[in-house]
Write a structure and sequence with these properties.
Layout lengths: L76 H5 L1
Amino acid sequence: MVQPIVKHKIVKKRTLKFKRNQYDRKIAVKESWRRPKGIDSRCRRKFRGVTVMPNIGYGTNKKHRHILPNGKKTPCSDRDKA
C-alpha cells in the first residue's frame, strides 16, 4: 500500500526582518541590522518596547530549514559543504 508523504507544518518563528535600532530617526543609519554596542543603549540592554535583537531562539527547526512551501529543498552549494 502506498503511504502518503509526511508533510510537516513549517513553523517560522519570525518572518519580519530585524531592523537596525534608530534607523527611522537618523538618515545616516541604514535599515540593515547591526548589533548595538553603546554603553547606554536601551536596545542592547534589552529594555521593553525597543527594537528586538536576533538571538538563537528565533531559529527555524533543522528539518524545515531551506524548504520551499511545496516541500522541496532549495539548491544551495554552501549548505552542502558545511
